[in-house]
Amino acid sequence: MAVTFADIIAPLERGRFLADFWTKQAVHLRSPGRTFDSVFGMEALNAVVNAHDLTFPKVKVSQNDKPAPPESFTSDAGGQRLVNAARLMQLFEAGASFGITGADADWPPLRAVVECMYDAFLESVHTNVYCSPPCTQGFQCHFDLHEVFVLQVEGEKHWRVFWPTVESPVESWRPEDAPAAGVPPYVDVAMRKGDVLYVPRGHWHYAVARESTSVHVTVGVTCRKGTSFMDWLAAEVTGDPVWRKNLPLLGDATGDGRLALGDEWCVFTEELKRALARKLSERDLVERFCRATLREVSPLSRISVPRGVDGLDFDGLVFSRPAGRRHFLDRRDDGATLFAGDKEIELDADEVELFGRLFAAETFTAADLRAWRPGVDASEMSAVLAELVRSGLLDARPK
Prior knowledge:
Elements: H1 5-9, H2 14-20, E1 27-29, H3 42-49, E2 55-56, E3 59-63, E4 66-67, E5 74-77, E6 80-83, H4 85-93, E7 97-101, H5 111-121, E8 124-132, E9 147-154, E10 157-162, E11 187-191, E12 196-199, E13 204-209, E14 214-222, H6 226-236, H7 263-280, H8 285-296, E15 317-320, E16 327-332, E17 335-340, E18 343-348, H9 352-360, E19 363-364, H10 366-372, H11 378-390, E20 395-398
Antiparallel strand pairs: 1-12, 2-6, 3-4, 3-7, 5-6, 7-8, 8-14, 9-12, 9-14, 10-11, 10-13, 15-19, 15-20, 16-17, 17-18
């Protein structure tokens, strides 16, 4: 059974998680009976480590709060540092922890986690796997520059989370910024198999494995910042000639080293201020930014339909929306324009409801389509669905 975002944040509902915890504070989530065996576990870890294709720095090792030198667990292979599984296990047995970055590339079932998280946030998602021997702390207290979801897949680990000392950081942590000695964590919890811990960006944390080997998956979500809006706005304002003018020339330095700026600088900056105020006051500015952002969002992978599209029995298929594919409708009296990714579809008034349902549904079948629009022409809709699948707007698989 595929893991979903609702599974990961259970027992909380999406609305409460986003309102009370997202970007605000860490939360420990325990849901009876939950495991992540379907996406990762000890057997998966052994398979990845023994695949003989892992390299440094994809795999990193830490012991006593210090990184292990790569030559201690790798061998040179044509200019690459290839991980030597036997050496890695020797370090592990001596108390070292190791991590595998981008683990979903090495273990396809982890892609289900990436896809559901990407679909939930429409932000960049990555996964790392960490393995620690019993009673060890793999990495020192630190914070991350992205949102973190910790999925405990094997063993137990004791986590401590501290309030941030730098608000919304965009640069890596420095030891001198860490919480002072004696400051208590605001989350202090032993993570069991199946537990989830959400840690916001900038919140300090560290973990210590308990009496058994611990394996956990971290899912990092790197979000757009306010600077993303400024980047978009920079392109928007070029429509106003004020922003396309040359800057006034810099004045000559005075005898005492001060910079002398002429009156034209005051005139120019006042023009810019007025132009920026006009732009920011446009009522649909934020909506345009969001639409432009959505158009840049693409599904995680392109779709390949089994045995091609033409000639398939559409009654034998289940259609679905690719993870991360969102749509929106620009409605008019005579119809609407449907935007999905970088595609635009012009709809007549009588097509708006049908296509709205079609793109909003997580999955649907030909029977659902007939229920939404009784009397629909089967051959016509088959051609339409085939084109939507070919263009990557829908996925299709046999029932």
